[in-house]
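Following the same procedure, the fold was encoded as tokens, giving this record:
***
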Amino acid sequence: KGEVFSIAVSGSSPSVQSRFNFRLLASPVPANDAFIDRLDLGRTAALEFEGDLTGASLEVLETASVDDAASIWWTWTAPLDGGVVIQQVLGNNELYVYQGDTLRALVEVTVLRQGGTTLTQFNSVADTAYHFALRGPAPAPVPGEGASRFSLRNAPTPRNDDFEDRIDLGTGAVFDFTFSNDGATAQLDEP
């Protein structure tokens, strides 16, 4: 904002004149470009969110892969204990999920990788803030080229989620029951 840049053009020989074209496209910086300015997604169990990396940058203390040149941030507070599923609906950038209070203190929870599966899961703890960083290469400065959209669903943990809480089906020969694994979580060392 308000910075002055100087551009110099030079050729291989001062005595040879040549023509050139120069085009400068400036994109506005996203409101959630910095961790401190992350957008609050609230405390709801199901939502969609989207963002565009056009005009975004990386922060000095931000850890990113070699190919990353831009990031934007959100914060979501889990409304309940349970499983969380995030699915990428549009785009192919990477979405990182973190816990921590400052950029320097972030701990990675999970990541939805570019070119891999379009969803990721993790276990949430009620009233805990999770920070999402959308990262990728710096897109061309044309709005929409760095766009991604995600859906998030947080379901309560089923009462028989852990092995020690399993439900005994008895010894009958015929079983008739309905079940769902919405909100189910993986137990440590679970096969």
